[in-house]
Amino acid sequence: MSVKNFKFVSPGVFINEIDNSFIPKSAEAIGPVVIGRATRGLAMQPVKVESYSEFVNMFGDTVPGGTGGDVYRDGNYVSPMYGTYAAKAFLRANVAPLTYVRLLGQQDTNQDGTTAAQAGWKTVNTANQRAIDNGGAYGLWLFPSSSIAGTGQASLGTGSLAAIWYLNSGSTIELSGTVFAGGNTGEAAGRASGSNAGVLDLTTIMQTGSLVTVSNTTTNLFTVVISGSNNSGEKITFGFDDTSANWAREKFNTNPQLAGSSATSFYPSASVKDYWLGETYEQELRDNATQDLTTGVTRAVILAVQNSSGVGPSQMLGQASREGRTGWFIGQDVGTYSSYVPFNQQKLFRLIGRGHGEWLQNNIKVSIEKINQSPNTATQYGTFSVVLRQLRDTDNNVVVMERFDNLTLDPTSPNYVARRIGDKYTTWDNTARTLKTYGEYNNQSKFVYVEMNADVDAGASDATLLPFGYFAGPRFASVADLHGTGSSGTAYVPVSGQFFMGGVNIGGGKNLWLSASVTFGDGPQILSASLTFPQPRLRVSASDGGLSDPTKASFGFQTTRTSGSTRSDPGMGAFSRLLYAGYADGGGSGNTTTGVDDYSTVFSLDNIASASAAYFYQSGSRVLGTSISAGSGQSYKTLLDAGYDSFTAEIWGGFDGLDIMVPDPMYNNGMAAASSNTTNSIYYTWKRAIDTVADPEVINMNLLGAPGLTHESLTTHMINVCEDRADAMSLIDLPNVYIPNHEQYYSSKADRLGATVTQAVSSLRDRSLDSSYGATFYPWVQTRDENTGALLWIPPSVAMMGVLASSEKKAAVWFAPAGFNRGGLTDGAAGIPVVGVTQRVTSKERDTLYEASINPIASFPSTGIVVFGQKTLQQSQSALDRINVRRLVIFLKKQISVLATRILFEQNVQATWNRFKSLVEPFLANVKTQFGITDYKLILDESTTTPDLIDQNIMYAKIMIKPARAIEYIAIDFVIMSTGASFDD
Fold first, then answer.
1. Which of 284, 26, 319 minimizes the C-alpha distance to 139?
2. What pTM was computed for the model?
């Protein structure tokens, strides 16, 4: 402080305190980016986590693979998810945060149209999608026992979809039983050829499309015969009681991987199937009493679920990952009840997933609670809560994932629903190769963001409106008045305008299901029926489940096994799947696709009625004037005042964009060597994930890993990205060192050992990599999953993530992450248990590897498994051909860059230069005392920042350092001397 700053009026001593001892704030801890699969979490965008517990909360725990079972319903846990182990290995050391990029299937907007270039999956089909032996989705519809209705017409009533099978080309699925109104007997007759595969032509075993009567008063079981190249007349008896040993999901194959076009690449030939069982709708069957357990007689038919172009639920190819969403939440009716039209109510907002794909709809539902009208005259806007609940909880036992209370639709309020939950979302710019973010308010939910109706967002809607109901998700349109022609031999299925339903002709001159006529006791009659597709159940009564306080009942979407049950139904995800690849929207969004209902129903609290103090949902009750809100002198406020102020909606339509017909949808063998963004979806997905973290101004990292990725073009790209950033290093895995189950099936475990030391060295040399920003290790190592105890082989980059973290914790980033002190994998240096190596490399092999810049992982009988090298992939000899030096320089550049920002835009004068040196020199001195560098020199004066640079607004400094080198070779001479010799000689 200058003396000029003192004010002298009268004599005295003036003292001022100046503190020049401040310690500059340390830069934020910087950690790695790991790219890989995970069971859940935001996908295709970098997410930073501070601890492994936070990682588990967001992305789930480690997945060792080897879990089969009901893969279609429960998810794919067949192959290991290496990225989760890398995250665990690093975060165990607790030295820095980790950024994770979860993979979901993507495709380039300019993809070439080949199967490999497209995300998603499809069954193996031939060109004629409508033929019964050409693959696709096939549904089983059940008709409850009923008397034949009508005059001159045999009506079966309405059939409900019970299950969907997915078949490959050349396969058939046939019902077995007694033909409805048929007279022929014998299995041979059932397979007889003819112009009609209808009711009258087949008997005991029917072609797809024939109607069967199942008569069994005790078991009520069905039988089908599935035939194909891998299933020769496989006859299966099953039912839909999930407590029975005959439950369909226990009897049929439910693993799509066994029916993939390359199934024999992953499984023994004897395990391969031509089909799998997909959705089953137990809740729908229980509710509709489709299986008549009184008489045990149910009529059934199997029909194709696809349109005339073969589009249907088996055609999910070409669909990249898509976010689940609720239908639009709508306001209460503020008009005359007699003119009430549910789907005309004002749309308010909806919730859309932030990047979770199918996981969101399979695990979360949304409740609107605590709906209150305006509490005072200061505003007309009321309040409400948005609660994200576990899908399989019940109103008796609510499990909250997130909740947001006291929300409002007032755009000017701090509690505006979009502001409180967040409305930002990200999209990928394929031209700029970067993520772009849109929206006004930061996301506070880790699961969803809010999309507001434009009128509400502009404050142009009725301020008294509150979320009072919702549009349910879309479904395939029902088929009404399905009937024959009445002329013998010319049966057909008139489904004019239907987008989904088996076509008229199924190949070979055969037609689906309905014969020309059926002869009963009173003469020939035309057979007719209707078909419906499932929709989620709505809670009917507030007393369902025996709630002690009925006002705690949440009307709307109900996930229990039966309406009065307190147990959840595990199959609710079947109701929420995306209908087919490319389906636009739905849920009240105005989709007009022929054959698809934009919404299966519109729920509203306006249709809550009461009788004898019991409250219940009755569709249409408001327009009839019998609902609470339609009563004389009553309104929606009457219902809210009674405490019935909540409802629940489903999330639907999410899709992972992955091929469910392979164990690891991101596997290396799914990419050809010459793959590109436009020719291969897997390649494009990996490449996009890597490019997501390419900009150092977007993501701060010092290490990049994609464990298990060995595609040479992509691992080279990882190194190039790090070199372009110049502030991070890439750990890459070499191809074919070990070949896990999800890459290739081998009957011999010895065959899994791929590239030898010599082959690995030769392959790497052919790539001509020369960069200090990359490093690689050999061979793979074995770990023990700490949750299950399962042993699995993991790529060396996983273990090295842990070694680099633990080395930094024990010492600093500039210490070599190798040797017995910091690279002892047996001693826990990897952060996860390491119990074996795929190959025990000899001393000579270690020399061969090290000369080629491949760091060996050695196994010694007495000291265990240890990292025995720390070279980068730089070919020329310099200090930067060692990992510890490269990591040191990255650390110094990052930290000094942060310090330099303190003088940015300051005056380019000596005082500023001195300030910069006062910041940097103590930092360098500290690194020196910790053995990172042996000496340094900082030059910043007129010799570096010359007048012409000053005129260009440039301050130029030189920092020279001498990195501390690690000891890698120890030479000791042992001299054997005679007894009389002197040591002083």
1. 284
2. 0.91
